[in-house]
Amino acid sequence: MTTNLPDYHAQGYKSIIATLEGSILTIVINRAKYRNTFGGTLDKDLADVFQLCDRDDRVRVVILTAEHTAPAYCSGADISNGWNILWLEDSEKEGEHALNISIVIAHRDSGGQISMAIMNCRKITIAAINGHAAGVGMTALQLPFDFRFVWAGARLSFPFVRRGIVPEGHSRANSLLLAGATVSPDSKFISDLYHDIIPTREAVYPVARAFAEELATNTSQVAIAYTKSLLQHPGDSIEENHLLDSRAIKLLGSSADGNEGIQSFKERRLPKFTGTLSKDSSPWFPWFHHQYQWRRIDVKHHKAKL
Question: Whole-model pTM?
Fold first, then answer.
């Protein structure tokens, strides 16, 4: 376990409240005054807290939610002063000559940055959507999560094409994104996105919390991280996936957590996993091999001029 354990209340977050209770970190969007719009320091706060809890061995599950009395879970980007809030001054200075691989692009979308921070978090992530959601509140603050719980009465909107822009990320949901649709959680176009649809707003977080408690107690932190990574960073063929799976199985099967999984099964009891990513993860993870490499792209903006 790391020696300098973070105090989440002392991080100086202004747009979120992060509270660690046991092994579950709850992050509450704290912009009710602004209808929980995606603005202020929300993007920076979320990126920081997900990167921080990824490295904190105490954290096994992360829940993002809002106060159930707030006007919305997240009502989209704060565009009261136009789209300029999304552009970073440094990237704009570079113009269209800022290069990333072979792509000429200066802008780094903040919603996409948050999506990557959540996707790259090696812990179990849960979105407890206990209010209406629109735009980035539907994409970055829902789609990258491992599990999603939603209030049955929520209005869910993808208004991007009706605001003259495109959604960040990638999806096959043409009926939602190309129509700029607003739907309810039980819509045939979106209902399968949610692990559970909850009748009342105030019950969404408690249901998600109970689910988180069960997972935090009965899953291996290292096995969760390896499994998420196998899903997110597969090989180029079934043969390559077979080699990656095999190596992960060998490493975990030979570990203390692997042994505890067998013993608890034999003894018909709940497991007591003690493995942590900082102590028990193999140097192989993330997997680097001359043939099977975990490909990473640097999306940070690098200045080309003063």
Answer: 0.85
